[in-house]
């Protein structure tokens, strides 16, 4: 074989290897992939997303999760293109975010609704909360608003009825002169022995080894709380993509509903097929 022939033969072999490698790569990546932003949770959250991932894989979709610790991060990551969708917020928070940041994030599927719960290590009922008592409250808007509405529903305060997502400045009546201590959301469970009342997210209660049954008061769920329903959200541009449709289908499945309602023990309920929470 001449030197030229040897060079040609070697080139053909290299091309063949490259083709096979490319073909193998294509086969391994045949599924669509979607990156979803969520808030840091607990083992139950991980178990729930494991179910969703398995459902998605059956539909030809791989789900990658990106975890955040600050409620301002998932929407910023979505608009910047770092993630494709997120699942952490309710309608009120999204509407406020879009208005403030002039963004085009849209809801594509309802997920869960959680009862507001009030906890105390010092008292067994709301009647025992003293005048001037200290209430630990989140310093992040999404959680602070939910807590204030829970406190209002419990009859402890009144907020401006024109505001859907109130902050402390919107409290218009405080008959017990409750003193509010603003803290990071992840600190609310830790300070329970030191304050009279707090309303930590259920995921933090469970993550701390406590039970949601320890709450001294639970807000009843009803249709009026629809704006507090949590959602899957994405950008307007991606809302009708096949990957997002598969994500929503994977989440809104019977096995995920069963897990949320009967096994997660976080106090949340699946609401996507519940007519009681449809507008």
Automatic annotation (TrEMBL):
Gene3D superfamilies: Periplasmic binding protein-like II. Keywords: Lipoprotein, Membrane, Palmitate, Signal. It is found in: Membrane. It is a lipid-anchor. Coiled coil: none annotated. Belongs to the NlpA lipoprotein family. PANTHER family: D-METHIONINE-BINDING LIPOPROTEIN METQ, METHIONINE-BINDING LIPOPROTEIN METQ. This is MetQ/NlpA family ABC transporter substrate-binding protein. It comes from Fructobacillus apis.
